[in-house]
């Protein structure tokens, strides 16, 4: 097992923290709204216009290759694109890393690891935006990171190397790191990947508690049943465009959801009202 000493670790990896640090962002604004205007990226995204309001869990839903991950990367300023992105009516296309880190925290679909780093040090890296200059994390930062690990049942892994944990545990470590970052918008790309069925729902129940009036959660997802259960708003994507935006309100929500979902997937699904779940039609008929 990988064991570390916090004091020696902080000195040894001071360079690691310095490479993550940049200038402080100004004081956080109370509310937020994201607006995307005419976002285009090669042949993958075309003329995306989208408004995302605060206080909601918004889910991107669509088939593989429809542009969900690319749209997220454009929103986060990770790839060059044509168009404009606004946060609270302020253009963010040219913001520095520290400024973007206050607005967005991100759980990517494909995970990368840092050599010889423990689970605790990986999660506490989410506190970097609060650290001036070359300062290393304080005891308070470590306490916040430990609490996040505890929330996801990972505290017993705090001294374990990131190379020694499972795919599901790695996924939860990324989420814990994003939470301690305390950004305005939590963005997650397929966060339930590698989680077993029970943990998917336990995970989403935890994410639901993070929703608040001054924050927003944006999730790319494939499971329509998770979208039905946990999303306040669902953005359907098809071939690089926004196909439909559906709010979870009113008595016709489920009927409208199923209608749109079957339009996207060739009328292949049924909705079972008794079980409150969507099934692939051939499987549903065999039950």
Describe the structure.
Helices cover 34% and strands 23% of the residues. The protein has 287 residues and is of the alpha/beta class. The strands form 3 sheets. A 6-stranded mixed β-sheet has the order 6-7-8-3-9-10, sandwiched between helices. Strands 2-1-4-5 form a 4-stranded antiparallel β-sheet, with helices on one face. Strands 11-12 form a two-stranded antiparallel sheet. Helix 8 (197-208) links the parallel strand 7 (185-189) and strand 8. Helix 6 (139-151) crosses helix 7 (167-180).
Topology:
Blueprint: H1 6-12, H2 14-20, E1 33-41, E2 45-53, E3 57-61, H3 68-75, E4 82-87, E5 90-91, H4 97-103, E6 104-107, H5 119-124, H6 139-151, H7 167-180, E7 185-189, H8 197-208, E8 216-221, H9 224-230, E9 233-238, E10 241-247, H10 253-264, E11 269-272, E12 277-280, H11 281-286
Parallel strand pairs: 3-8, 3-9, 6-7, 7-8
Antiparallel strand pairs: 1-2, 1-4, 4-5, 9-10, 11-12
Q: Work out the count of structural domains.
A: 1
CATH class: Alpha Beta
Uncertain segments of ≥5 residues (pLDDT<50)? 7-32
| β-strand amount | 15-25%
What is the 3D form? globular
Helical content band: 25-40%
What structural class do the secondary elements suggest? alpha/beta
The H-level CATH homologous superfamily, spelled out, is P-loop containing nucleotide triphosphate hydrolases
**Termini, distance in Å?**
46 Å
Classify the fold: give the CATH topology: Rossmann fold
In the sheet with the most strands, the strands line up as 6-7-8-3-9-10
Number of helices: 11
């Amino acid at each position: 097992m990988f064991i570390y000493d916090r004091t020696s670790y902080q000195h040894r990896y001071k360079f690691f923290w310095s490479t993550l640090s940049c200038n402080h962002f100004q004081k956080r604004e109370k509310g937020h709204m994201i607006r995307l205007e005419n976002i285009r990226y090669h042949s993958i995204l075309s003329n995306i216009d989208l408004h995302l309001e605060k206080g909601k869990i918004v889910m991107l839903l669509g088939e593989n290759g429809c542009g969900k991950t690319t749209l997220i990367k454009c929103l986060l300023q990770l790839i060059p694109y044509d168009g404009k992105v606004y946060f609270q009516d302020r253009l963010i296309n040219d913001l520095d890393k520290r400024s973007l880190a206050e607005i967005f925290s991100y759980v990517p679909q494909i995970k990368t690891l840092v050599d010889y780093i423990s689970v605790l040090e990986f999660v506490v890296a989410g506190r970097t935006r609060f650290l001036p200059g070359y300062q290393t994390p304080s005891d308070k930062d470590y306490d916040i990171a430990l609490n996040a690990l505890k929330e996801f049942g990972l505290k017993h892994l705090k001294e374990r190397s990131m190379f020694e944990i499972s795919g599901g545990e790695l996924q939860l470590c990324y989420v814990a790191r994003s939470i301690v970052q305390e950004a305005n918008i939590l963005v997650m790309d397929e966060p339930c990947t590698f989680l077993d069925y029970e943990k998917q729902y336990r995970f989403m129940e935890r994410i639901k508690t993070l929703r608040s009036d001054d924050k927003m959660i944006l999730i790319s997802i494939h499971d329509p049943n998770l979208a039905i259960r946990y999303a306040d708003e669902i953005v359907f994507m098809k071939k690089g465009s926004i196909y439909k935006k559906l709010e979870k309100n009113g008595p016709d929500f489920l009927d409208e959801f199923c209608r749109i979902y079957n339009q996207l997937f060739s009328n292949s699904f049924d909705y079972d009202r008794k079980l409150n779940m969507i099934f692939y039609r051939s499987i549903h008929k065999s039950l």
